[in-house]
Amino acid sequence: WDLLGLEIDMNRKKDKGFETPLFLNVLTCYVMFIPHTTHQVVCINNINFQRKSVIGFVELTIFPTVVNLNRIKLNSKQCRIYRVRVNDLEAPFIYNDPTLEVCHHESKQRNLNYFSSAYTAAVSAVDPDAGHGELVIKVPSELWKQGDEMNVLKVYIEFSLDQPKGGLHFVVPDVEGSMAERGAHVFSFGYQNSTRFWFPCVDSYSELCTWKLEFTVDASMVAVSCGDLVETVYTHDMRKKTFHYVLPIPTAASNISLSVGPFEILVEPYMHEVTHFCLPQLLPLLKHSMSYLHEIFEFYEEILTCRYPYSCFKTVFVDEAYVQVSSYASMSIFSTNLLHSAMIIDQTPLTRQCLAQALAQQFFGCFISRMSWADEWVLKGISGYIYGLYLKKTFGVNQYRHWIKEELDKMVEYELKMGGVLLHPTFGGGKDKDNPTPHLHFSIKHPHTLSWKYYKMFQCKAHLVMRLIENRISMEFMLQVFNKLLSLASTASSQKYQSHMWSQMLVSTHSFLKSISNVSGKDIGPLIKQWVDQSAVVKFFGSFAFNRKRNVLELEIRQDYTSSGTQKYVGPIKVTVQELDGSFNHTLQIEENSLKHDIPCHSKSRRNKKKKIPLMNGEEVDMDLSAMDADSPLLWIRIDPDMSILRKVEFEQADFMWQYQLRYERDVVAQEESILALEKFPTPASRLALTDILEQDQCFYKVRQGACFCLAKIANSMMSTWTGPPAMKSLFTRMFCCKSCPNIVKTNTFISFQSYFLQKTMPVAMAQLRDIQNLCPKDVLNFILDLIKYNDNRKNKFSDNYYRAELIDALTNSLTPAISISNEVRTVDNLNGDVRLILEEITRSLNMEKLLPSYRNTITVSCLRAIRMLQKNGHIPSDPSLFKSYAEYGHFVDVRVAALEAVVDYTRGMHRTSPSEVSRTHPIPYVVHKILSMLGKNPPFTKAAESPLCNEALVDQLWKLMNSGTSHDWRLRCDAVNLYYTLFGLTRPSCLPLPELGLVLNLKEKKAVLNPTIKPEQGPDTTEMTVSSVSMSSGVAPPPQGLKRKLDSVVGPLGSSSPEPGQVLQEEDTSKKFKIRVRISSEDEIDMESPHDSQAFIHHHLNILERPSTPGQHPVKHPALIILLSDNLEPPAVDQAVLSLPVTPLPSSFGKESTSSSKHSGDHHHHHHHHEHKKKKKKKHKHKHKHKHESKDKERDSHAFSNSPASGRSARSPSMSD
Amino acid sequence: MADPAVMAGGFTFRGGKATSSPAENYQLARRRTLQVVVSSLLTECGFESAEKAAVESLTEMIQRYISEVGRCAKAYCEHTARITPTLSDTVVTLIEMGFNVNTLPVYAKRSQRMVITAPPVTNAPVIPKALIAGQKRTHPSHIPSHFPEFPDPHTYIKTPTFREPVSDYQVVREKAASQRRDVERALTRFMAKTGETQSLFKDDITAFPLIAARPSSIPYLSALLPSELELQTLEETDSSEQDDQTDSENTPGNNLNDDPGADKENSMLPPGGVVPSVKASEENMIDNPYLRPVKKPKVRRKK
């Protein structure tokens, strides 16, 4: 049915494919149709907090751009659809979501290559940008003819959501009282376009329409949504009220959001059209945190010379937020944890930055949307760039430059590690042939297949590239371009719907570049080609020599463009040389084969003339030149000082040059670079330079913080020659201690924030000092303990919670590994004296937190880290139970994350997964995301290393998680994919049993063969046997340990209670051919019993996995933590003799068994058949194939039910549309 | 044993009862004299010997009798507002006790009476000195001098102490720090003892007890809101912000529990966030859809 509508909105398609005429051609041939939605009504008339359900309807006004419109495709996930009517006529519909379960018959394929391509295909199959959707509605034939007259169609869909796992998040605290008193609230969330999770729509950023939104909520609640609140009306029983919103500005469905709760309302005092909402009791915090917002508004409106596009703006602060900031049309949803009182120092800039980000995205991201996914970088780039301008204005140039350097370093590091980040991917006509990013284990074709980290770096790169464009065309032009985009969009937005006008509100790479060239008249083609159309960064190595005779600086700049994530750079590069006579900029041309560049020096070397030295900024300073080389006039050299290339520079210059650079260069980036370089020069001169910087209160505080840590490192390297008190101690005493009694710190005032930050950092850095025994010096430890003891905050108007937390961090830093007496159990008695003191402080602080909790529980977080460090260093017994209790639902989210981090670390350290009882963890998307990413960052094992954890059960669980367990959250699924990649790599995990090995070897064929796994399943008897034995004989057998483990895990859960002799499977190894013999004990009849038990096993697994969705079950299992659960399933000590036999018993035994049932295979008979036997006998035998089969049947049934109960039809294949 | 050396001389001849206290010695000496009296009376009556227990009983009786006479005499004298008993007091007492006073002179002058020696001189027991701090006040002119003296001034006026208050900065800080630490430690120990705990060690669960982590149903409240202690500090350090705080305490929840009847009130109320200075002038100008009254449903539809 896609064979219609050639000229549907070609304008749009042209823009998308502007780079690739080939693609365009394909498009015109590949017929599809996209009718335009012009207006949509969303009405949610019941929100039940108790049951966590939502009932409502939507009505889309569709403008058919083609004649004979007979099918309409919409996006919808999770929703239960009751009826669909088109122009008041009942319409049949089909609901099919291929992303629910990515790989069918997943029992065989366990490699990521396969998964990734299947996942990409699934996402493509419902991609709204390509006119696809999960919900296909057949237009009643009565209406077909109307197409000629191009009458609008009204599609009316009734739907409900029951315990949604994605899209909407319910927060219902478990306390007494009404829902409003309990602070229950609900809000929409999601990564990229995720609106389809909570109502049917065309979930695309490029599909704009006007909106009417109605929400009926309890009278004690407020519903905040996009657009203008027109009126609020009571229902007839006066117990509920309906909020009517109208959004006349064309907006993409993906930018629609909702939050409902008993919010407290605050009208912005300076701008009455701005309203803030927070949860009960937090109003004082809201007032303080928002007191700054109007300045951000003013700033953006001024630089963009454009008014804020919407007529109102709402901020909502919710608990358990998905991300800190998410922006939607005319409203933003924030995490409630951003709120703070006037006493909090550290959170203040962070919250303001979040507000500024949200507001920047209102202009670019919400009001101006994107044409296609490939144009995302423009929006992210512009919003990131203007946010940067705000940073520069509010927090100063130093902070801005520091931030740019930080972002650049972060991005460069990621690209060098993972391969490049591509801003503007273009996909050729071929399906998967030319993947622009073969180095990645995921596809970048869709936002939903991206790894979260990659997306972060993508945003980072986007704004850095915008800055590069600014460098090229000047900021003035840049802002003019933005203004042009905005004014075009706002003109378009006020128009009535016409086929092409609204597309002015969508930005594409093409239109953006066109505006740039129109406004500036400059060609930025090469720049775009280098950084936007191409991934990777540049890596420079620089060194120099001074030629005294010619008075020339011979600079050599080499590049590494062969390793992953790097590219070759050709073009100009700026080099700044500070000489005795001043600072000089040189622009060199990097060309193909030229490495050396001669730079003439301006000044002769001179030593004894006393003259001030002019710096770059015109300042003239006195320098002590005794350290420098007598023959050279060079003080220091910098390559690309303005960061106008996305690069990493490794530059070699003498230590005194770095020291001069640190002391006298005024650019914070240069100072930070020299601090980093000085780590390699542990000399008294470096020490002096660093100490001088520390003492200079005009220096940027972050540079000084960096200097602290560098000084600690240098001190450790200079240990034997170090004189005087421990590094920084006397400095700290002078700065922060009482004049009369130098061992006591002054009472806190924190009036000067610079010194506050320094005061926080110094002890942490000092604790890194080590003496000759590699211990933290006693002096330093006592000093830190005294700081804690004498800390006095009574006279301070600021909270000292961050300071105290950092003092605990300092204690943590001071820990060193315990002197290990082999296998000694750690007891209280053999606790080291110093450690006892530390432990006492930690326990007291942690206990005090229960009585007087600190802001964001920072101290608890630090204490948990400290305890983990004590465990890790062997001072106290390693035990995750404490962390598990803190990881439970009901603790502050920061505490939970810290505790989970410790559990993850424990898992790695002990090479044993913890028998996790964190099962009560409530599925908060953010926390699950954190767990998965922490596991990815600190994996219990990797593909390279052997680990007892690497077993089939784990592979199963993780596979299940990413295949079907995370279909409700794109981000989570990608996290699971990432973790799978970290643990097992792209290919089939080595711990899996052999049968499919033969298939694994045919990696390339797999893509061609649609479903290679069907084969072994259909012919389960002898073929599989041969496959396995063949592959074994070819010598690609996995390490025997893998087998052992596999068996172990298979037998484990069942056999642990009673290992039976009947299970002993023996193997004889004759010239690498495996013959498998199953010895059956007298009481054992394998054939009939094994399926039953395997069913029980699967039940068990399903229970674990499915519990979150089970209605009525309150304490919900966390899918991610099941991973941690896995060793529960491992038998403590099963007879090694039984297990150590390398076997491939399952397929073979299965083969035999299933011959008995294979007659029934293909239909559901055997399923019922086995059910009858189920209660007869309990046997311990694993029947793998059967599990999969049955479980799938079960899943299928349940899905079919939940997906479309009304239609009664369920199609599950992604390729159903042909 | 305050001053045994002083008393030692008086006792040695009594058989070295140096261990007993001076008051005891004094009483023993008196009692011995009484025994002698009883014995001589017995001899006078014609007894040749007597059992020790009998003598002892008689001694007890006579002692009681004399004590009672003394006590009563004192009572009589105090009754008449004097402090020293006179002869008549004693006479009245004797009469009261049923003794024929007239027989006394005859009995005293009987011929066969025996003369006994005076009891040995022992030092009267030292009454422990009351603490004297400061000068006792003398009686004012209207009070006769025989009236009891004023007690020591500290018992009813004040106690002057003469120790220097500690003003050394270091000591003050030291003290504040250790006091706070002690309080915190005691408090947390107490909480740990009385509630559930978690332990870091398996062998000794009482070492370093940690108050068990208890999930709360709304964890963000305690994590975000400043504690009372902090609020207090804030009030002390900054009075201007104090106003702000109290101001805000009144406003939350304006728009929260608006039951149908209360809307009009709500719409009149200024929103919480209005800056005080702006409040007065712009109160009526704020037009925010969220502050508008909720409309009543149209009745027509219902019918």
UniProtKB/TrEMBL annotation, chain A:
Residues 655-1009 form the Transcription initiation factor TFIID subunit 2 TPR repeats domain. Residues 1031-1071, 1147-1218 are annotated as: Disordered. Residues 1202-1218 have a biased composition (Low complexity). InterPro entries: Aminopeptidase_N-like_N_sf (IPR042097), ARM-type_fold (IPR016024), Ig-like_TAF2 (IPR057345), Peptidase_M4/M1_CTD_sf (IPR027268), TAF2 (IPR037813), TPR_TAF2_C (IPR057991). Residues 1190-1199 have a biased composition (Basic and acidic residues). GO terms for biological process: RNA polymerase II preinitiation complex assembly. PANTHER family: TRANSCRIPTION INITIATION FACTOR TFIID (PTHR15137), TRANSCRIPTION INITIATION FACTOR TFIID SUBUNIT 2 (PTHR15137:SF9). Belongs to the TAF2 family. This is Transcription initiation factor TFIID subunit 2. It comes from Oncorhynchus tshawytscha (Chinook salmon).
TrEMBL record, chain B:
One of its GO terms (cellular component) is transcription factor TFIID complex. It holds the Pfam family Bromo_TP. Residues 293-303 have a biased composition (Basic residues). Residues 26-103 form the Bromodomain associated domain. Residues 235-303 are annotated as: Disordered. Residues 235-247 have a biased composition (Acidic residues). Coiled coil: none annotated. InterPro entries: BTP, Histone-fold, TAF8, TFIID_su8_C. Keywords: Nucleus, Transcription, Transcription regulation. It is found in: Nucleus. GO terms for molecular function: protein heterodimerization activity. One of its GO terms (biological process) is transcription initiation at RNA polymerase II promoter. Belongs to the TAF8 family. This is Transcription initiation factor TFIID subunit 8. It comes from Oncorhynchus tshawytscha (Chinook salmon).
